[in-house]
User: Fold this.
Amino acid sequence: CVLAQGGVENDVLGFTILLFLGGMIRGALLGQSRFRETSRLKYEAREFAAEMERNSRRDPLTGLLNRSGLEQAIAGLGVSDGPFVAMLIDLDGFKSVNDTYGHTIGDGLLVKVGRRIEDHAPQGATIARIGGDEFVLLFSACRSPQAAGELASSIIAAIANPDPELNSVRVGASIGIYQADKPQLTEMLLKADFALYAAKRGGRNEYCLFDADLDAALERRNRIERDLRGAIESGALCCWFQPLVRLDTSAAVGFEALLRWQHEVHGAISPPEIVTAARETGLLSLLT
Assistant:
């Protein structure tokens, strides 16, 4: 309308208005584009953060949960879901695989072991790899069609099944089992680990259930470890000297020094127990 009226002033004013309108349109289009770009970047950032969070809970090799993921999974369980069975699965002979065939073959074996555990796990079970060759299987006892010992035997047999890539090395598994009414990870792993090493003392491809006898043995070990420093500082540990005698002359030719500790609750503690407790608690140097 301004341009239609003619005149220099109107022409300048009309041109100015056109520039202003053009700037507004351009600004609106740029603003819309930047809004879309900002929204896209925010969405990608959220997706990336979510992926990082998921990856932080997964073992990158096997795709199973790691310890952090296991902790989060257990945190979501309630007492009403129990009782719970925790199996700590440790491979026998795995170091020989890495030493003989290399870490690539060893990594491939770990992936296979993870799949074999998944194939035998009860529905809804939680599976994690928490160490180099250590796996955890956690499930509700009422959801498993098999007893814990029967399931452990099936898993051991599956893992011990010969692998065609490993001609000179046989890999097996030992399993420690603990059943608890409440899903408390620290307690479950501690007691399953104690049962695991009891199984290892029995040989390869064995499982062991944590029972009252193992509970008493664990309490004994913990008490010895707690009381050892005090016993050393108070002089409760002492040496007994046993003579070494020649069989042909019956003459004493020396003495063997034997470490002894009379515990107030558990009685006589054997030297191997004392040395093991000292090693675990960092007190070994105080015994020499």
Q: What stands out?
A: The radius of gyration is 34 Å.
